[in-house]
Design brief:
five-stranded parallel beta sheet; 8% strand; single chain; alpha/beta; 310 residues; 15 helices
Length: 310
Protein backbone atom coordinates (compact mmCIF):
# COMPACT_ATOMS: atom_id res chain seq x y z
CA UNK A 1 0.00 0.00 0.00
CA UNK A 2 1.50 3.35 -1.06
CA UNK A 3 0.89 6.95 -0.16
CA UNK A 4 -2.02 8.77 -1.85
CA UNK A 5 -1.12 12.27 -0.64
CA UNK A 6 -1.74 15.24 -2.96
CA UNK A 7 1.33 15.80 -5.20
CA UNK A 8 1.01 19.55 -4.56
CA UNK A 9 1.29 18.98 -0.82
CA UNK A 10 4.39 16.84 -1.38
CA UNK A 11 5.99 19.52 -3.56
CA UNK A 12 5.34 22.11 -0.88
CA UNK A 13 6.82 19.81 1.75
CA UNK A 14 9.95 19.14 -0.28
CA UNK A 15 10.47 22.85 -0.89
CA UNK A 16 10.69 23.35 2.87
CA UNK A 17 13.54 20.85 3.31
CA UNK A 18 17.12 22.08 3.47
CA UNK A 19 18.31 18.99 1.60
CA UNK A 20 16.05 19.96 -1.31
CA UNK A 21 16.93 23.67 -1.39
CA UNK A 22 18.08 25.29 -4.65
CA UNK A 23 21.34 27.23 -4.63
CA UNK A 24 21.33 30.07 -7.17
CA UNK A 25 25.09 30.54 -6.69
CA UNK A 26 25.64 27.15 -8.36
CA UNK A 27 23.23 27.69 -11.25
CA UNK A 28 26.10 27.91 -13.75
CA UNK A 29 28.12 24.99 -12.40
CA UNK A 30 27.81 23.12 -15.70
CA UNK A 31 29.76 25.91 -17.40
CA UNK A 32 32.77 25.67 -15.11
CA UNK A 33 36.03 23.81 -15.81
CA UNK A 34 36.12 20.30 -14.37
CA UNK A 35 38.78 21.20 -11.78
CA UNK A 36 36.66 24.08 -10.49
CA UNK A 37 33.64 21.78 -10.11
CA UNK A 38 35.81 19.26 -8.28
CA UNK A 39 37.04 22.01 -5.93
CA UNK A 40 33.47 23.12 -5.24
CA UNK A 41 32.37 19.56 -4.54
CA UNK A 42 35.34 18.90 -2.29
CA UNK A 43 34.64 22.09 -0.38
CA UNK A 44 31.03 21.02 0.15
CA UNK A 45 32.12 17.58 1.36
CA UNK A 46 34.54 19.17 3.84
CA UNK A 47 31.59 20.64 5.75
CA UNK A 48 30.02 17.26 6.51
CA UNK A 49 32.36 16.24 9.34
CA UNK A 50 31.58 19.45 11.23
CA UNK A 51 27.85 18.79 10.88
CA UNK A 52 28.37 15.32 12.35
CA UNK A 53 30.55 16.74 15.14
CA UNK A 54 27.67 18.99 16.21
CA UNK A 55 25.61 15.88 17.01
CA UNK A 56 28.25 13.71 18.70
CA UNK A 57 26.59 13.70 22.16
CA UNK A 58 23.37 12.42 20.60
CA UNK A 59 25.26 9.82 18.58
CA UNK A 60 27.18 8.63 21.64
CA UNK A 61 23.98 8.28 23.69
CA UNK A 62 22.41 6.18 20.94
CA UNK A 63 25.50 3.96 20.70
CA UNK A 64 25.53 3.27 24.44
CA UNK A 65 21.87 2.29 24.31
CA UNK A 66 22.47 0.02 21.29
CA UNK A 67 25.51 -1.63 22.89
CA UNK A 68 23.60 -2.34 26.11
CA UNK A 69 20.93 -4.20 24.17
CA UNK A 70 23.32 -6.05 21.87
CA UNK A 71 25.26 -7.23 24.94
CA UNK A 72 22.02 -8.95 25.98
CA UNK A 73 21.76 -10.68 22.61
CA UNK A 74 19.81 -8.02 20.72
CA UNK A 75 20.15 -7.15 17.06
CA UNK A 76 20.90 -3.93 15.21
CA UNK A 77 18.55 -3.37 12.27
CA UNK A 78 18.85 -0.60 9.69
CA UNK A 79 15.82 0.37 7.61
CA UNK A 80 15.71 2.88 4.79
CA UNK A 81 14.86 3.52 1.15
CA UNK A 82 17.06 4.40 -1.81
CA UNK A 83 20.54 5.66 -0.93
CA UNK A 84 19.76 5.56 2.81
CA UNK A 85 18.68 1.92 2.57
CA UNK A 86 21.74 0.98 0.53
CA UNK A 87 24.03 2.57 3.10
CA UNK A 88 22.35 0.57 5.87
CA UNK A 89 22.74 -2.67 3.93
CA UNK A 90 26.40 -1.80 3.26
CA UNK A 91 27.17 -1.16 6.93
CA UNK A 92 25.39 -4.34 8.02
CA UNK A 93 27.13 -6.48 5.40
CA UNK A 94 30.57 -5.33 6.54
CA UNK A 95 30.10 -6.39 10.17
CA UNK A 96 30.56 -10.17 9.71
CA UNK A 97 33.99 -9.97 8.00
CA UNK A 98 35.19 -7.10 10.20
CA UNK A 99 33.92 -8.22 13.59
CA UNK A 100 33.04 -11.89 13.05
CA UNK A 101 29.41 -11.22 13.92
CA UNK A 102 26.66 -13.59 12.90
CA UNK A 103 24.89 -12.08 9.83
CA UNK A 104 21.65 -12.10 11.81
CA UNK A 105 23.04 -9.70 14.46
CA UNK A 106 23.33 -6.62 12.21
CA UNK A 107 20.67 -6.49 9.50
CA UNK A 108 20.07 -4.05 6.67
CA UNK A 109 16.55 -3.64 5.26
CA UNK A 110 15.90 -1.62 2.11
CA UNK A 111 12.45 -0.70 0.84
CA UNK A 112 11.68 -3.00 -2.07
CA UNK A 113 14.06 -5.75 -0.99
CA UNK A 114 17.39 -6.83 -2.56
CA UNK A 115 16.33 -5.72 -6.06
CA UNK A 116 16.25 -2.14 -4.77
CA UNK A 117 20.01 -2.25 -4.21
CA UNK A 118 20.60 -1.84 -7.93
CA UNK A 119 17.35 -0.47 -9.29
CA UNK A 120 14.41 1.67 -8.20
CA UNK A 121 11.39 -0.21 -6.84
CA UNK A 122 8.40 2.02 -7.48
CA UNK A 123 6.35 3.03 -4.46
CA UNK A 124 8.41 1.05 -1.94
CA UNK A 125 9.67 4.06 -0.02
CA UNK A 126 6.14 5.44 0.35
CA UNK A 127 4.86 2.41 2.26
CA UNK A 128 4.79 2.25 6.06
CA UNK A 129 3.04 -1.11 5.70
CA UNK A 130 5.97 -2.55 3.74
CA UNK A 131 8.35 -1.61 6.56
CA UNK A 132 6.10 -3.26 9.12
CA UNK A 133 5.90 -6.43 7.01
CA UNK A 134 9.71 -6.54 6.62
CA UNK A 135 10.18 -6.16 10.38
CA UNK A 136 7.44 -8.65 11.26
CA UNK A 137 9.63 -11.33 9.68
CA UNK A 138 12.37 -10.51 12.19
CA UNK A 139 10.09 -10.93 15.25
CA UNK A 140 11.55 -7.95 17.10
CA UNK A 141 12.21 -8.04 20.85
CA UNK A 142 12.91 -5.28 23.42
CA UNK A 143 16.64 -6.07 23.11
CA UNK A 144 16.67 -5.16 19.42
CA UNK A 145 17.37 -1.74 17.92
CA UNK A 146 15.89 -0.39 14.69
CA UNK A 147 17.58 2.56 13.00
CA UNK A 148 15.38 4.38 10.49
CA UNK A 149 17.51 6.22 7.91
CA UNK A 150 16.19 9.00 5.66
CA UNK A 151 17.88 12.13 4.35
CA UNK A 152 14.60 14.02 4.21
CA UNK A 153 13.43 12.61 7.53
CA UNK A 154 9.96 12.14 6.06
CA UNK A 155 10.29 8.82 4.16
CA UNK A 156 7.26 6.68 5.11
CA UNK A 157 9.22 3.40 4.99
CA UNK A 158 11.78 4.63 7.55
CA UNK A 159 9.13 6.19 9.78
CA UNK A 160 6.96 3.07 9.56
CA UNK A 161 9.95 0.94 10.61
CA UNK A 162 10.56 3.10 13.69
CA UNK A 163 6.87 3.19 14.63
CA UNK A 164 6.56 -0.59 14.36
CA UNK A 165 9.74 -1.14 16.39
CA UNK A 166 8.60 1.18 19.19
CA UNK A 167 5.28 -0.63 19.33
CA UNK A 168 7.21 -3.87 19.88
CA UNK A 169 9.28 -2.31 22.68
CA UNK A 170 12.51 -2.17 20.67
CA UNK A 171 14.95 0.72 20.90
CA UNK A 172 14.66 3.13 17.97
CA UNK A 173 17.00 5.62 16.32
CA UNK A 174 15.95 8.09 13.63
CA UNK A 175 18.80 9.34 11.42
CA UNK A 176 17.87 12.29 9.18
CA UNK A 177 19.51 15.30 7.53
CA UNK A 178 16.82 17.94 8.11
CA UNK A 179 15.89 19.69 11.35
CA UNK A 180 12.53 19.01 12.96
CA UNK A 181 12.04 15.80 11.01
CA UNK A 182 9.12 13.41 11.62
CA UNK A 183 11.59 10.50 11.65
CA UNK A 184 13.68 11.92 14.50
CA UNK A 185 10.50 12.83 16.41
CA UNK A 186 9.20 9.27 16.08
CA UNK A 187 12.36 7.66 17.52
CA UNK A 188 13.77 7.27 21.02
CA UNK A 189 17.02 8.77 19.75
CA UNK A 190 16.64 11.38 17.03
CA UNK A 191 19.87 12.30 15.21
CA UNK A 192 19.63 15.08 12.63
CA UNK A 193 22.82 15.85 10.70
CA UNK A 194 21.99 19.11 8.94
CA UNK A 195 24.34 19.35 5.96
CA UNK A 196 22.39 21.97 4.01
CA UNK A 197 21.57 22.13 0.29
CA UNK A 198 23.33 19.75 -2.06
CA UNK A 199 25.68 20.66 -4.90
CA UNK A 200 23.07 19.17 -7.25
CA UNK A 201 19.64 20.19 -6.02
CA UNK A 202 18.00 17.35 -4.10
CA UNK A 203 20.76 14.80 -4.80
CA UNK A 204 20.98 13.45 -1.27
CA UNK A 205 23.43 10.72 -2.20
CA UNK A 206 26.02 13.51 -1.89
CA UNK A 207 26.51 15.36 1.45
CA UNK A 208 23.53 13.73 3.11
CA UNK A 209 24.72 10.29 2.03
CA UNK A 210 28.22 11.03 3.29
CA UNK A 211 26.84 12.18 6.64
CA UNK A 212 24.72 9.04 6.97
CA UNK A 213 27.73 6.85 6.13
CA UNK A 214 29.82 8.57 8.82
CA UNK A 215 27.14 8.11 11.47
CA UNK A 216 26.50 4.47 10.55
CA UNK A 217 30.25 3.84 10.73
CA UNK A 218 30.16 5.20 14.28
CA UNK A 219 27.06 3.25 15.31
CA UNK A 220 28.43 -0.13 14.26
CA UNK A 221 32.13 0.39 14.96
CA UNK A 222 31.85 1.93 18.42
CA UNK A 223 29.14 -0.54 19.40
CA UNK A 224 31.51 -3.35 18.46
CA UNK A 225 34.31 -1.71 20.48
CA UNK A 226 31.96 -1.60 23.48
CA UNK A 227 31.14 -5.30 22.92
CA UNK A 228 34.83 -6.28 23.10
CA UNK A 229 35.26 -6.92 19.39
CA UNK A 230 38.56 -5.01 19.43
CA UNK A 231 41.73 -4.95 21.50
CA UNK A 232 42.90 -1.37 21.48
CA UNK A 233 42.47 -0.38 17.85
CA UNK A 234 43.06 -3.90 16.54
CA UNK A 235 40.25 -5.92 14.93
CA UNK A 236 40.79 -9.06 16.99
CA UNK A 237 37.50 -10.64 15.90
CA UNK A 238 38.27 -10.34 12.19
CA UNK A 239 37.20 -13.40 10.19
CA UNK A 240 40.07 -14.78 8.06
CA UNK A 241 38.00 -15.75 5.02
CA UNK A 242 40.58 -14.98 2.31
CA UNK A 243 44.34 -14.63 1.84
CA UNK A 244 44.35 -10.91 2.63
CA UNK A 245 42.45 -11.42 5.88
CA UNK A 246 44.67 -14.37 6.84
CA UNK A 247 47.70 -12.13 6.39
CA UNK A 248 45.94 -9.40 8.39
CA UNK A 249 45.16 -11.90 11.17
CA UNK A 250 48.84 -12.79 11.43
CA UNK A 251 49.79 -9.12 11.55
CA UNK A 252 47.18 -8.32 14.23
CA UNK A 253 48.54 -11.08 16.47
CA UNK A 254 52.07 -9.76 15.87
CA UNK A 255 51.07 -6.20 16.77
CA UNK A 256 49.22 -7.30 19.90
CA UNK A 257 51.90 -9.67 21.20
CA UNK A 258 55.25 -8.83 19.60
CA UNK A 259 55.71 -12.58 19.02
CA UNK A 260 57.75 -14.07 16.20
CA UNK A 261 56.23 -15.61 13.07
CA UNK A 262 56.66 -19.23 14.19
CA UNK A 263 54.94 -18.68 17.54
CA UNK A 264 52.13 -16.74 15.85
CA UNK A 265 51.49 -19.48 13.29
CA UNK A 266 51.47 -22.12 16.04
CA UNK A 267 49.00 -20.07 18.08
CA UNK A 268 46.68 -19.49 15.11
CA UNK A 269 46.81 -23.19 14.24
CA UNK A 270 46.05 -24.17 17.84
CA UNK A 271 43.03 -21.84 17.94
CA UNK A 272 41.67 -22.66 14.49
CA UNK A 273 42.61 -19.21 13.19
CA UNK A 274 40.79 -17.28 15.92
CA UNK A 275 42.84 -14.10 16.36
CA UNK A 276 41.54 -13.21 19.83
CA UNK A 277 42.19 -16.72 21.12
CA UNK A 278 45.66 -16.79 19.58
CA UNK A 279 46.61 -13.53 21.29
CA UNK A 280 45.41 -14.88 24.62
CA UNK A 281 47.41 -18.10 24.27
CA UNK A 282 50.58 -16.09 23.68
CA UNK A 283 50.11 -13.32 26.23
CA UNK A 284 48.68 -15.50 29.00
CA UNK A 285 50.66 -18.65 28.23
CA UNK A 286 47.56 -20.86 28.06
CA UNK A 287 46.45 -23.50 25.56
CA UNK A 288 43.66 -23.10 23.02
CA UNK A 289 40.83 -24.70 25.04
CA UNK A 290 41.73 -22.65 28.11
CA UNK A 291 41.76 -19.48 26.03
CA UNK A 292 38.30 -20.33 24.73
CA UNK A 293 36.97 -20.86 28.27
CA UNK A 294 38.49 -17.60 29.53
CA UNK A 295 36.98 -15.64 26.67
CA UNK A 296 33.58 -17.28 27.11
CA UNK A 297 33.62 -16.35 30.79
CA UNK A 298 34.56 -12.77 29.89
CA UNK A 299 31.80 -12.37 27.25
CA UNK A 300 34.46 -12.16 24.57
CA UNK A 301 36.36 -9.22 26.08
CA UNK A 302 40.06 -9.93 25.60
CA UNK A 303 41.26 -7.48 28.27
CA UNK A 304 38.98 -9.08 30.84
CA UNK A 305 40.15 -12.57 29.83
CA UNK A 306 43.78 -11.51 30.19
CA UNK A 307 43.05 -10.12 33.65
CA UNK A 308 41.30 -13.35 34.65
CA UNK A 309 44.27 -15.40 33.43
CA UNK A 310 46.45 -13.48 35.89
Amino acid sequence: MTSTSDPRDLRTELESLTTEAFRPDLADIDRLPTLDIARLMNGEDATVAAAVAARLPLIAAAIDAVADRMARGGRLVYAGAGTAGRLGVLDASECPPTFNTDPSRVVGLIAGGPDALITSVEGAEDSRELARADLERLALTPDDTVVGISASGRTPYAIGAVEHARARGSLTVGLACNPGSPLAAAADHGIEIVVGPELLTGSTRLKAGTAQKLVLNMLSTITMIRLGKTYGNLMVDVRASNDKLRARSHRIVALATGAQDKEIEEALTATDGEVKHAILTILAGVDGPTAAKLLAASDGHLRAALAAAG
